[in-house]
Design brief:
Helix content is 29%, strand content 33%. It has 162 residues and is of the alpha+beta class. The protein has a single domain, classed as 2-Layer Sandwich (60s Ribosomal Protein L30, Chain: A), CATH 3.30.1330. It is globular. It starts with a strand and ends with a strand. The relative contact order is 0.26.
């Protein structure tokens, strides 16, 4: 069996009067994620992890922030595309383990919905998706409320052929 692991990381500044989208959920907050697309750091980190698992570059390879057509785009488009690239190469997503780093607001009440959104887009079960949240105890740009970040790790396996 062929196993591949990928890891992804994304970071965005937080700015007033912008929606805060994390894992496809609009989280109530005075500040939102500033990005060329909808700024969903969790989806972006997972996309990079999926692409990295097959050495296919990063999110900017497929969805460059220099292209106007991606301005304000839903990051679920990016996640679906990365999932399709995995499938096209005869791999299966075994699991995703992700961590969101954000001082506030607390996102624990939204994590189950985020997991369901990710599982639906990747066409896997909820049990294959882990989303965790942490703070940096008020240290650094995330702790000071100036930004948020996400890490993701994925495991994929080659589909067996009869």
């Amino acid at each position: 069996m062929t196993y591949r692991i990928g890891q992804g990381f994304d970071v965005h500044a937080l700015e007033a009067d912008i929606p805060l989208k994390i894992g496809g959920v609009e989280v109530p907050s005075a500040k939102g994620s500033l990005g060329h697309s909808d700024g969903d750091v969790l989806y972006h980190a997972i996309v990079d992890a999926l692409l990295g698992a097959l050495s296919l570059g990063d999110i900017g390879t497929y969805f460059p922030s220099t292209e106007e057509r991606w301005r304000g785009a839903s990051s679920k488009i990016f996640l679906k595309h990365a999932s399709q690239l995995i499938s096209d190469r005869s791999f299966i997503i075994e699991n995703v383990d992700a961590t969101v780093i954000l001082q506030e607001p607390k996102i624990a009440p939204f994590i189950d919905t985020m997991r369901r959104n990710i599982a639906r887009l990747l066409k896997v079960s909820n049990e294959q998706i882990s989303v965790k949240a942490t703070t940096t105890d008020r240290l650094g740009f995330t702790g000071e409320g100036r930004g948020l970040a996400a890490f993701a790790v994925v495991l994929i396996t080659k589909k067996s052929t009869p």
